[in-house]
Design brief:
The protein has 371 residues and is of the alpha+beta class. The two termini are 15 Å apart. The protein has helices at residues 13-22, 61-80, 99-111, 122-128, 148-161, 204-210, 283-290, 353-370, and strands spanning 2-9, 26-32, 49-50, 84-85, 89-93, 118-121, 136-140, 144-146, 165-167, 172-178, 181-186, 189-193, 195-198, 219-228, 239-242, 252-255, 261-264, 268-269, 302-312, 333-336, 343-347.
């Protein structure tokens, strides 16, 4: 057992997965979280989808960790009884003009070795999802859904069972180097550590700057959701997506593990990482978007649900990784601090971060062990 002290900043799904992995090898693991509970921000304010790997550029970190994470997380959920459902998903072309983009998405997925992909016609879509409007669709059998909150609680429990300590409501304020150790000033007191992992999500750029790393900026992008009324539960069996936009995977339909029907998320750059409520879009916006997929949708079927904020590394007018460019853009960053070899930074851990959490944890812990 490694006797060095390891502190992980951020108890989202990735931070909890790192703590669970690290506690099998390190005797002193501490997980700091600024909020009262783990996973209160990006990790649970999403669609809860296990992604397949069709969207990400070949050889990107997102593609690698999404594919490996999809396999590993399925096994993890089975082993630890985390609620999940093997749904598959359709990515829909609304008309013939979108078939070329659908074919391009198929080719990207095949290049990434995503299993079982096929383009199917309207009749095939209707057999599985009779209420969905589609000219054709890409069938993605390896997509699934998971209860993100249950996953996070399970990862944290595993970490604690293995000896890790969890410190909620503990905000990191400053980092100093003292001899060969790092001195951490927090809202609840000071820590000394040999090793530091920055898994602070939306605030990872701020933690990086505390260590002198100035190269990265997190740009918050808010996503808003609507609930579709439960009386229409039979309208959807699994996951139905439009073609992705350069900024996001598009406003899609999700039937959650708890049998809620979600429409969303939107994608809009905002100025503040704390802005979950200002200037929310009305249900009428979701109605117009939702009818592209679900033509029977009515305004009284919709109620505003919740919002989440993605930690983008690409500014508003940059080139995003869902574009047709084959060059990775906005990829996950997992790297050592240039000044402090004992510090590992994770930045830009947006989607598919939930899917990738256990796979990312393995890479991070391997880096830490090598320090």
């Amino acid at each position: 057992m490694d006797s060095r002290t390891l502190v992980i900043v951020g108890a989202g799904v990735v931070g909890c997965a790192i703590a669970a992995e690290a506690a099998t090898l390190f005797s002193d693991v501490y997980l700091l979280e600024s909020r009262p509970r783990p996973g209160m921000l990006t990790s649970t304010r999403n669609s809860g989808v296990l992604h397949s790997g069709i969207y990400y550029a070949h050889n990107s970190r997102k593609a690698f960790h999404c594919l490996r994470g999809n396999r590993w997380l399925r096994e993890f959920c089975r082993r630890y009884n985390v609620p999940w459902r093997d749904t598959g998903k359709f990515v829909v072309a609304q008309d013939a003009s979108q078939l070329a983009a659908l074919e391009q998405l198929l080719q990207r997925g095949q290049h990434n070795d995503v299993p079982g992909l096929e383009i199917v016609d309207q009749a095939a879509v209707s057999r599985r999802e009779p209420h969905i409007r589609a000219h054709a669709a890409l069938w993605v059998p390896s997509a699934a859904i998971v209860n993100a909150e249950s996953l996070i609680k399970t990862l944290l429990r595993l970490a604690q069972d293995r000896g890790a300590a969890f410190a909620p409501q503990t905000r990191l304020l400053a980092v100093e180097t003292r001899r060969d150790r790092l001195h951490l000033h927090t809202s609840t007191g000071d820590f000394e550590t040999d090793l530091l992992v920055n898994a602070a999500g939306l605030y990872a750029d701020e933690v990086a700057r505390m260590c002198g790393e100035e190269r990265y900026t997190v740009y918050p992008v808010r996503g808003e959701y609507c609930h579709v009324h439960r009386r229409h539960l039979d309208w959807l069996r699994g996951l139905v997506y439009p073609l992705p936009t350069p900024l996001s995977l598009g406003i899609h339909l999700t039937r959650t593990v708890e049998d809620a029907l979600l429409l969303g998320p939107t994608a809009r750059y905002i100025l503040s990482k704390e802005d979950y409520e200002q200037d929310l879009l009305p249900p009428e916006f979701f109605l117009a978007e939702g009818r592209h997929l679900l033509p029977d949708l009515q305004l009284d079927d919709l109620t505003l649900a919740y919002t989440g904020i993605r930690p983008k590394l690409i500014p508003e007018h940059g080139t995003h990784d869902h574009s047709s460019s084959p060059v990775p853009s906005g990829d996950f960053i997992v790297e050592r601090d240039l000044r402090h070899r004992s510090v590992i930074h994770l930045l830009g851990i947006e989607s598919p971060g939930l899917t990738a959490c256990t796979s990312l944890a393995r890479e991070v812990v391997e880096l830490v062990v090598e320090t």
